[in-house]
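Thread: quick sanity check before group meeting

JM: Hey all, I'm pulling together slides for Thursday and realized we never actually wrote out the predicted structure for the chain we discussed last week. Dropping the sequence here so it's in one place. If anyone has concerns about the input, flag it before I start.
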Amino acid sequence: MSHQVEVPEHRTYVLNFHQAVKEKNATAIKSLYELWSKVIEKHYKQAPEGPPNSSVIASIVGDGVDQIFLTLYNELFYRYLYAKAHSSVTLENRIGAWENYSRLFNYFLKPDKPVITLPNQWIWDITDEFIYQFQDYCLYKYKVKGKNEEEITQIKNHPQVWNVQSVLKYLYSFVNKAESLEEENDGGDVYKMLGYFCTIGLLRIHCSLGDYHLALKSVSKIDLHKKGLFTQVTACHISLYYYLGFAYMMMRRFVDATKAFSNILLYISRISNKQHPGNRNTSKREGQMYNLLAIVMSFSPMQRIDETVKKNLKEKLGELKMQRIQRGDVAVFEEMFLAACPKFIFPAIPNYEIEDDDYQSPSHQQLKLFMNEVQQMVLLSTIRSYLKLYTSIGIDKLAQFLEMDKEHLRIQLLCYSRKNRNLVWRGGPALEGQWSPTSDTDFYIDGDMIHVVDSKTERRFGEFFIRHINKFDEIIHDALS
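JM (edit): ok, ran it. Output follows.
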């Protein structure tokens, strides 16, 4: 039975939080961290300046204030600023946030291991926010219009602030530290979780930079067949599968992308009535993944998905958009990609001599690559729809239907044959896979005749019964609770 948690006064909260951090009381830290949003909601919701900064907090605590406490408090302060008052975030705030993260990460990376233990949710939130603020700074740098000379000079004078090499160095350092301590059987939970969450953070950053091969390689040590540590934090679970599915899609591994998106969307549908996923982007992320699922399913017609996800997909996208996808309307693919893709970034400092906002250029470059693939796949889908009507058909006749010459059709048939065999993940590292057919229609050419082989997949009755048994168990559980 749920009960109302009493929200303390801000001064009491700060003093209790400081005491918990100073004493390294993990249980108290966890409870107080979970209260943070409630305290802010109660005392500072109407305050335009938001919660007090660390100078005010230091004066509340008085002499002997713990520096790590102030660093942790600043992490919460800057995160609130970015989430609730993003339009008022200044360059000074961005520099301050970077310096605060540097202090915090250097504390955890120092040779003498700190013994402070943070809850898994906070560790994930720190990692997630660190990457978010890095991406935000990269986009901010490229928004040239509206920046005065002083602001541009400050950016140029602080090249180390949110520098991509420094960001990646921190993430890889935590991954390596966690691995080395694990080998020595000396890994604390903080390092284990920091290393694990930074691994997923690397997947996100490499996707944002457009390096999908390295993105999948980053998570090669995460066993996706098992219920891993990522399931301990819902937002982490969702983030992992979103970027995993997107990387698979951009590498043309549409079957694996379909599996990734459908699995996590099924998980979200199951927990949506029981708990809120707990991330500011969860609802948006869910909508993005339904868009991406519709795209990859149109390119992998053999792949089956859960009935619940299929029903939700139709409801989310609507009949009109689904029909446009089936017709191969190129414009709808572009629209859905831009709505669902992650924030792509240029990590370098822009040329401020050219007064032109170029922050959307990375997205346009990735869109161009994606649309090139779409145009090919739409044509191949049209060829497939004709082949499914015949057991054999002459190349001349098919060329007339498609309104193209014979030689161009032969090239497209070779392209069809090649593109309908893809790597499909069967286990092990995410980057690996086995070459498998991804279409339900195959063919061979004998002279000027195309002979069609219909490759029907066997229905998996076992999965059908297991799914309905699980649904029946959920109904009984809900009825008894």
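AS: nice. DSSP finds 19 helices and five strands in the chain. The chain has a mean pLDDT of 87.
JM: adding both to the slides.
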